[in-house]
Design a protein that fits this description.
Length: 394
């Protein structure tokens, strides 16, 4: 990452406004750090909390100018759109039910958008965003951040390179333990937005982490899930929202898959794992040990691929900042999405050509396909696990 293509194309950093991610949010600080890691964005404005007074005060605390620390996301968009030095792009990291509102408003006012997952809570809303992006020609990056890991990109590149042959089997699991306690959520804290289906979406576990697992399988294999047979529900007694989902998958090339997600596996931290098997070998990767990609070819002993190590393919090399043996992690993977989106945005704004390898970040179409998968899995589960189409014609 010796070059800064944004400075080369624009003569300056891109100006970013953030909506959401205020006090108490884990992902808010992550977005802001990721945006600035490679010096392609500067955060110039924000509406970072739901309460207007708290939002204005919290924006100043993170270093925003007082006149660009707004009380409300829509107020921010209008004000920034009317400034000569206004934001170029907007990053949205608010609760799920507001992604649709802020994405459409931002695109309507000419901002490129970086939005956290899930893109929206309903398929109709997701399609609204897809159509708006098409109509405006603006960039939309969806932060399925696990796709930013160098070894995930190496896996994608190896599959695309034919090193695994024809893909036949995919096993993906995303297992967490944060919601294993029977008294979660604590009634004394009120109902957090995630537990309210109107705000959090129709399925808590599928919106929170099932969307990531589905996206990761698609990203690495380049395949689409064509049909799903699922059981989605609550494993913690008396819980009204979903905390686990299990599914068999059929992919569009005939490959078969398994999908297992839960937030109620006591003691487990953030275990996102995937195994992809083809006719020539298998790949294995897990998020808690992100710098090791295990390759088991049929023709020889197992190999460990590492960031910038031997056998690194160009898509992976672009996602790695330092020499091999120096671990990069969650922050850097998240930053890779921002840096790629920045290159795409700068290229669009300066009528230049981006590096094609920078265009692998998830977008609005990936988001809509993810919402369709959640809908299909829920419909399958409600019908006792019948195979249900997950294909989206867009
Ligand atoms: N990519 C990831 O790995 C990842 C991880 C965690 C959360 N997320 C996503 O990030 C989003 C937020 O989740 P979270 O865990 O930060 O939630 P959270 O409840 O911890 O924090 C939300 C923050 O946004 C603020 N907020 C709420 N409504 C707002 C509004 N209308 N305008 C401005 N600010 C507002 C709140 O005050 C709070 O500071 C969700 O869409 C979630 O799915 C993604």
């Amino acid at each position: 990452m010796d070059r800064n293509p944004v400075i080369e194309m624009m003569g300056r950093r891109l100006r970013l406004a953030v909506i959401g991610g205020g006090p108490g949010s884990f992902i808010g600080a992550m977005h802001r750090t990721a945006a600035t890691l490679d010096d392609r964005f500067e955060v110039v404005a924000g509406a970072i909390s739901s309460d207007p007074d708290r939002s204005r005060a919290a924006g100043v605390v993170i270093g925003l100018a007082r006149d660009r620390s707004y009380g409300d996301g829509l107020e921010l968009l209008k004000a920034e759109a009317s400034r000569d030095d206004g934001a170029d792009a907007v990053a949205i990291m608010t609760p799920n039910d507001t992604h649709h509102l802020y994405s459409l408003a931002a695109l309507d006012l000419g901002f490129d958008v970086i939005c956290d997952k899930p893109i929206t809570n309903t398929l109709d809303e997701a399609l609204d965003v897809v159509h708006k992006v098409r109509q405006t020609g603006l960039i939309f990056c969806l932060t399925h951040n696990y796709t930013g890991y160098p070894m995930v990109r190496q896996a994608r590149a190896m599959v695309n390179d034919g090193q695994l042959g024809e893909i036949r089997l995919v096993q993906v699991e995303y297992v967490q333990g944060g919601k294993a306690a029977e008294n979660d959520p604590d009634p004394a804290d009120g109902l957090p937005w995630r537990y309210d289906p109107v705000r959090g979406g129709p399925s808590l576990v599928m919106g929170d982490i099932g969307s990531h697992a589905h996206n990761l399988a698609r990203f690495i294999t380049g395949l689409e899930v064509s049909e799903v047979s699922a059981e989605i529900g609550a494993i913690v007694p008396d819980r009204l929202v979903h905390d686990y989902g299990a599914a068999m998958l059929r992919f569009d090339n005939g490959a078969r898959g398994s999908f297992w997600v839960t937030q109620a596996a006591a003691g487990v931290e953030n275990c996102l794992r995937i195994r992809v098997s083809g006719t020539l070998g298998s790949l294995e990767w897990e998020q808690e040990k992100p710098t090791a990609l295990i390759f088991k070819p049929t023709t020889g002993p197992a190999e460990v691929r590492t960031p910038n190590g031997p056998g690194t393919l160009p898509l992976s090399a672009l996602a790695t900042r330092i020499v091999s043996g120096h671990p990069e992690g969650f922050h850097e993977a998240f930053a890779n999405l921002y840096s790629d989106a920045a290159e795409a945005i700068a290229a669009r704004r300066s009528a230049s050509m981006p590096n094609p390898l920078a265009l692998h970040f998830p977008n609005e179409i990936d988001g809509a396909i993810g919402v369709k998968f959640v809908d299909a899995a829920m419909a399958s589960s409600a019908a006792g696990g019948v195979w249900t189409s997950a294909l989206l014609d867009i």
